[in-house]
Amino acid sequence: MQRLILSSTLTQPHRFRGSLAAHVLAPTPVDEPEVLASRKKAQRNEEVRLFLLSFSAFFVAITSFIW
Question: Which end of the chain is more exposed for a tag (fewer CB within 10 A), N or C?
Fold first, then answer.
């Protein structure tokens, strides 16, 4: 079974992409370094919080099975 390879060029864009508005296809802006640093710090805090929560839940579950 052979498939046809369709190449999309700038002269013939895909029908769906051609129907979209220009602001939808615009590239997303890059955040400033301060914003990226604050997001990274918040993500790190969330990871630590989830680790401590799961560790304590595991500890309580194992301790309750032992006693």
Answer: N
Whether residue 14 contacts residue 8, with contact meaning beta carbons closer than 8 Å, is answered with yes
**Dist. CA 52–CA 37, nearest whole Å:** 23
Cβ proximity of 17 and 25 under 8 Å: yes
Express each pLDDT in 35-50 by its tens digit: 888 889 999 999 999 9
pLDDT digits 0-9 by tens, 20-33: 888 888 888 788 88
What does DSSP assign to residue 8? -
Domain with 42, as residue range(s), is 30-67
User: What gap in Å lies between CA 4 and CA 46, rounded to an integer?
Assistant: 47
Token match 């700038």: residue?
10
